[in-house]
Amino acid sequence: MKLNAIKLCNFRSFYGKTPEIILAGGEGENTTIIYGNNGTGKTSLLNAFTWVLYEKFSAAFASAEQLVNKRAVAEAKVGQVIECWVEVAWEHDGIRYRVKRECRAYKNETDIDVTKTQLYLQFANDDGVWKFPTQQPEDIINQILPASLHQYFFFDGERIEEIVRSDKKAEIAEAMKIFLGVEVINRSINHLKEAKKTLENEFKAIGDSEIKKLLREQAKIEKEIDYINRQQEEINQELEYQYTFKQETSSRLRELDESKNLQERKQDLEQQKISHQEELQKTKKGLKKIISTRAYTVFLSETIVQYQKIINDLKSRGELNSGVSKEFIHDLLQSRRCICGTQLHLGSHFHDNVSKFLDKAGSSAVEETAIRIGARVDGMDKQVEDFWEEVDREQVKINHLRQTISQIESELDVIQERLRTDTNEEISSLQKRLDNIETKILELTLDKGRNEQQIDNLQSEIADLNQQIAKQKINESRQALAQRRITATQDAIERFTEVKFRQEKQFRLQLEKRVQEIFSEIAFVPYIPKISEKYELNLVEESTGIEAKVAASTGENQILSLSFIASIIDRVRDWNARNNMLMVPESSTFPIVMDSPFGSLDAQYRRQIAKIIPQLANQLVVLVTKTQWRGEVEEEIATKIGKEYLLIYYSSKPDCEQDYIYLGGESYPLVKQSPNEFDYTEICEVNRYS
Q1: 562 shares its domain with 630
Q2: What sign results for the dihedral spanned by CA atoms 355, 360, 364, 369?
Q3: 398 lies in some domain
Q4: Do 34 and 169 lie in a common domain?
Q5: Is residue 266 exposed (0-12), middle (13-18) or buried (19+ Cβ within 10 Å)?
Q6: By C-alpha distance, which of 657, 660, 661, 604 is closest to 630?
Q7: Which ranges of the chain have pLDDT less than 70?
Q8: Residue 140, in any domain of the structure
Q9: pLDDT (tens digit, 9 = 90+) per residue, 96-127?
Q10: ∠ Cα 428 431 435 (to 5°)
Q11: Beta-sheet pairing, 666-673 with 641-651
Q12: Measured between alpha carbons, how far is residue 357 from residues 126, 128, 134, 146 in Å?
């Protein structure tokens, strides 16, 4: 999706029809810069893109219902129609598109009436003829760039850190499924399940009574599993809400001066508790491994005594004498020649003398085995002693960790009780609210565990039923065919499920690696980004040898979010190129439109981000103030610029102070005195060479 141009009419601060903003998209000079002061319409321009394409707005877009320009409304006569629209042109897979969303305002005596929005889309192929599609415009746009992904390509840079918020991870996970084509796989699995049900119904119609009974039981259990799974989804959603609610309530407690120290101590103790609990689990696993691999030595005492008795008996009978072996004497008798050269003919005096040694010699095989086992038996006592010492050491560590956790919990109880009974009603109220949240989280967690156990039991029952069904004798050819089809369908479901799992895992690990590379390139802190299986994005540090989450600053979260967006685009583009996946959005070209991407970052971070953002996408549109632009940002991006525009604000204030921006040594206006009583914004192209 390559954006070509955008044009507005009476949209927010933009009065009348604006000039068409032509967007850069060439090789090397792929960046369009739009300069404007705060409050002049940068956020409105960002939201013009999202409104026309998806009828959605960013979180910072105030009074989203007031789209129609105020000057246009004021100048209109009663009953007059006021147009408000945005039009965007783009290219995709060799096809040109123009989409226009509009609403109309009618002025009456007291206020204005605004109609519902209308969306129009036209396209042109190589023949250059513009046509209306047979598909709905919304469907075409979503096939090119799905609405659920738009916030990763059109975003407010000052609020970009919201991407890493815990309540966003489900949204991110769903967006990734669209990128990977997992939704296509999910639909395939669902279609196969429906096909399997149809085949099973056919099987019921032709099967014997026992098979019918088993299938009815199977359907009943599957229905129960579906019901429990829906319950699990509701529990997971409620848990997400409760965790977010808990975080907000805890943050509020930390903000209160009277409870700040206690709340910070409480948070520190909770982190210690989690760390010690993880260490306790790790120690328990270590103890289990020691027992599972070496505990057998404890039970070998009687066996060792029996072994020693057998060896002593062999020695007493002369069967384990060291020296000449029976095998050696047999070889001499077979060859009929002694080692001294004497002939050993059968019946001769020499043959009889050598034969007598067979009774006295031992077996070399038995002797070697006895020596080898004896060496291991001799060290067995030491192994038992070492085993018990290591077990005792791990047990001491476990007991110590349990005592430490108990002490932490006791201190937490004391802190919570102090907060509950605090004379400040707001503090006590917030703590009681936290208590209720913890109780609710515990109840939900227990319900979730019970449901998981019930699902495991039911799935075991289904596995047993499947075995019983497989054992039933199938006599009719139709019955056999239906059974083969059911088996093949189930096999396909399992294979698709495995493909989905592997694809998600591989992509997530590649994405995490790329996020780490980009974050490391921008940030100077030694933190490592991690992406969980639920696409929860966190920063961790490993300075102590133990991985611990980091309470990242706003700037670090902004950098983390930018790294995440860059990695998504990079990985999807690479994924598409290497795998030629038809299920990925058709084109690997991705535009990014970002408002104020530099926020309040310091100079070093501003430079690093300015260096990397032109590489984020094939096409970049950046809306900035002059303070965000100047200095290191201008130095890094200047060579990538293909187009530049100004948002000139006309102020109706009588004492308006005009403002300018200097580009390439020339002065350009940003704020001017309005020629009338209205405030409005004008779009003007910067042509440095005119």
Answers
A1: no
A2: positive
A3: no
A4: no
A5: buried
A6: 661
A7: 60, 62-65, 158-183, 206-209, 318-329, 356-372, 374-376, 378, 471-478, 571-589, 599-600, 689-690
A8: yes
A9: 999 999 998 888 887 888 888 999 999 988 77
A10: 135
A11: parallel
A12: 103, 108, 104, 93
Instruction: Please give the tally of structural domains in the chain.
Output: 2
Q: Please enumerate in sequence order all residues whose Cβ is within 8 A of that of 417, keeping only pairs 6 or more positions apart, or say none.
A: none
d(CA 211, CA 472): 7
Could you tell me the pTM of the whole model?
0.59
pLDDT at 308: 76
pLDDT recorded at residue 384: 82
Q: Is 110 helix (H, G, I), strand (E, B) or coil?
A: coil
Burial class (CB in 10 A: 0-12, 13-18, 19+), 439: exposed
Asked whether the beta carbons of 605 and 613 are under 8 A apart, the reply is no
For 219-247, write each residue's pLDDT tens digit: 899 899 998 999 989 999 999 888 888 88
Examine residue 228 and state whether it is found in any structural domain, yes or no: no
Asked if residue 71 is part of any domain, the answer here is yes
Predicted confidence at residue 335, as pLDDT, reads 80
- CATH number of the domain enclosing 24: 3.40.50.300
Q: Are residues 127 and 37 in the same domain?
A: yes
Torsion of the alpha carbons at 200, 206, 209 and 214, rounded to the nearest 10: -10
CB 607 within 8 A of CB 623: no
Identify the domain containing residue 521 by its residue range: 148-194+493-584
Residue 280 · residue 271 · CB < 8 Å: no
Torsion angle in degrees (nearest 10) through CA of 172, 174, 176, 179: -140
How far apart CA 36 and CA 670 sit, in angstroms, is 6
Which amino acid belongs to residue 661?
I
Quickly tell me which residue has 């109880």 as its tokens: 413
